[in-house]
């Protein structure tokens, strides 16, 4: 963790509480992510200057820390607010461009040795674990920063033609017709599993909209707006309205088999 010890020694006389030590660690992690500190407070100032050092009065309040950072390419800014609650420090990080928020709660007694606040070699109890925890709040915001070519990582993933994205969403990724069925294709595709559940209209013989005819796809020739035999008159169902039949639909449907499941005792007298 090169650079952390130098940073800590530059502010060790200002560190009087365990939350001070945590904020120093968070500041160092942001430096590793190519961010520089602009100053304290949640508003821009004309005197803001990017620096690797913690600004003056950065820990004037031991219960609330507010620091602003900017990326080296000046394409993104981050606002950090850390609040002390009992023996924990709640860290909130907001990106100015995407307005994405990440937060993390760190137990101070678990990670900081309060008796050796000015001894860098002993102040952090579990430095590797603390580093992983702090990355949880930094990575979600830093990963959204655009690269030098002006395209985000998400855009690069889309342009690469991810196999999973194309197969899991066949209708949107490939522009294929709704009745196409990648699961029934001649070549099995393991990434297409579950694709039917992602289409609410049942484009892959599934989905959340249930076909009242239980046929997978609505059958041609049945229009509830034209009325039903022995039931609703024409015009009773508005065109395009969802209609759940309350009786068998269609003509010349076979009736029940009288020999099918006779009532109990039916053959007692035989």
From TrEMBL:
- Where composition is biased (Polar residues), the residues are 173-189
Q: Which UniProt keywords apply?
A: Acetylation, Cytoplasm, Endoplasmic reticulum, Methylation, Phosphoprotein, Proteasome
This protein's GO CC annotations: endoplasmic reticulum; proteasome complex
Q: Where is this region: Disordered?
A: 143-198, 215-270
UniProt superkingdom = Eukaryota
Specify whether Endoplasmic reticulum is a keyword of the entry.
yes
Give start and end of each PI31 proteasome regulator N-terminal domain. Answer: 12-142
Compartment list = Cytoplasm; Endoplasmic reticulum
> Which molecular-function annotations from GO does this UniProt entry contain?
endopeptidase inhibitor activity; proteasome binding
| Major localisation | cytoplasm
Q: Name one GO biological process term.
A: proteasome-mediated ubiquitin-dependent protein catabolic process
> Residue ranges under compositional bias (Pro residues)?
261-270
User: Pfam families annotated for this entry?
Assistant: PI31_Prot_C, PI31_Prot_N
User: Where is the PI31 proteasome regulator C-terminal domain positioned along the sequence?
Assistant: 166-248
Purpose of the protein: Plays an important role in control of proteasome function. Inhibits the hydrolysis of protein and peptide substrates by the 20S proteasome. Also inhibits the activation of the proteasome by the proteasome regulatory proteins PA700 and PA28.
What PANTHER family does the record tag this protein with?
PROTEASOME INHIBITOR, PROTEASOME INHIBITOR PI31 SUBUNIT
What name goes with this protein? Proteasome inhibitor PI31 subunit
Q: Which organism is it from?
A: Erpetoichthys calabaricus (Rope fish)
């Amino acid at each position: 963790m090169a650079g952390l010890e130098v940073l800590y020694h530059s502010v060790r006389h200002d560190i009087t509480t365990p939350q001070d030590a945590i904020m120093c660690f968070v500041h160092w992690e942001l430096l590793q992510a190519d961010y520089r500190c602009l100053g304290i407070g949640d508003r821009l100032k004309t005197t803001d200057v990017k620096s690797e050092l913690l600004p003056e009065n950065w820990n004037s309040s031991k219960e609330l820390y507010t620091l602003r950072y900017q990326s080296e390419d000046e394409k993104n800014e981050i606002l950090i607010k850390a609040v002390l609650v009992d023996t924990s420090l709640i860290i909130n990080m907001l990106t100015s461009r995407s307005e994405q928020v990440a937060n993390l709660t760190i137990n101070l007694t678990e990670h900081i040795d309060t008796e050796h606040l000015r001894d860098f070699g002993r102040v952090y109890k579990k430095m590797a674990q603390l580093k992983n925890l702090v990355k949880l709040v930094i990575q979600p915001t830093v990963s959204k920063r655009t690269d030098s070519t002006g395209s985000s990582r998400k855009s690069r993933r889309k342009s690469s033609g991810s196999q999973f994205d194309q197969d899991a969403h066949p209708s949107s990724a490939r522009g294929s017709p709704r009745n196409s069925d990648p699961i029934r294709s001649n070549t099995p595709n393991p990434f297409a599993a579950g694709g039917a559940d992602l289409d609410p209209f049942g484009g892959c013989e599934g989905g959340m909209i249930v076909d009242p005819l239980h046929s997978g796809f609505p059958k041609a020739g049945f229009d509830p707006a034209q009325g039903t035999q022995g039931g609703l008159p024409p015009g009773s169902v508005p065109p395009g309205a969802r209609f759940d039949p309350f009786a068998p639909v269609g003509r010349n449907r076979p009736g029940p088999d009288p020999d099918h499941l006779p009532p109990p005792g039916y053959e007692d007298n035989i």
